[in-house]
Amino acid sequence: MVVRDSGDALAVVIPAAGRSSRMGRPKALLDPGGVTFLERVVGANRDAGCGIVIVAVRDRDDPIAERAGALGAYVAISEDPDQGPIESLRAGLRALPDHVGRCLLHPVDHPLVRPETISMLAGEADADAKASIVLPLHRGRAGHPVLFKRDVFPELLDRTLAGGARTVVRRNAGRVLAVDVQDPGVLANLDTPEELARRFPGFDP
To answer: What is the pLDDT along the chain (205 residues), one digit of tens a residue?
Structure first.
């Protein structure tokens, strides 16, 4: 897959290729409140001004791929999904036009992030030319989504990379901009039934 040219230089990759073993069913298709996790994440990024939205899945016949396409997102196939979100991010990065200089990594199990938080991260990235990585902090804790600029794309794409995107963040610590946000959604990793029940009382998946 190659994304069609876009005048917007901000993209987002939404990893949705995991097995959801701890949740017991695909997290992307969970719909507390009648809105799926995937719809929430895609919608938040579109509302924040992302011109390119890519959803990475295990295979093209995956129901998540169908739902992503219906939402107008591009679908990328993760070549080795059991390696984790880094392979989904790579699938998305390989599909980007050369002029796209910024890409967010927004896991599908973080569906409560506000659009204004995403816009803030993009704005801070624009304002700080020295920063290669921008991440949100809430009450001193780092969360998602994380924004990567093009100068670190080669490191993310390196198949010898151990530890995934976190390794790239750590070894580029001097070029990381941490932005304080008043958005608890950046820390809301809804990865288990217990966490889901805490955030959405009464919801029965």
So the answer is: 657 655 557 999 999 988 776 776 889 999 988 899 999 999 999 999 999 999 999 988 999 999 999 999 999 998 888 888 899 999 999 999 888 999 999 999 999 999 999 999 999 999 999 999 999 999 999 999 999 999 999 999 999 998 899 999 999 999 999 999 999 999 999 988 888 888 888 777 6
Residue owning tokens 């392979």: 87
Give the C-alpha separation, 135 to 142, whole Å.
7
User: What is the 8-class DSSP label of residue 14?
Assistant: E
Bridge partners (DSSP) of residue 76 are: 56
The set of residues, in sequence order, having a beta carbon less than 8 Å from that of 99 and lying 6+ positions away, is 5, 9
Taking the domains of the chain in order of start, what are their residue ranges?
Answer: 10-198
How far apart are alpha carbons 196 and 109 in whole angstroms?
A: 10
Whether this prediction's pTM lies above 0.85 is answered by yes
| 177 contacts 189 by C-beta, under 8 angstroms | no
3 state SS of 169: helix
Q: Using alpha carbons, select from 75, 145, 70, 85 the residue that is nearest to residue 115.
A: 145
10-198 under CATH 3.90.550.10, yes or no: yes
Q: Name the CA radius of gyration of the chain, rounded.
A: 16
The DSSP H or E segment spanning 17 is none
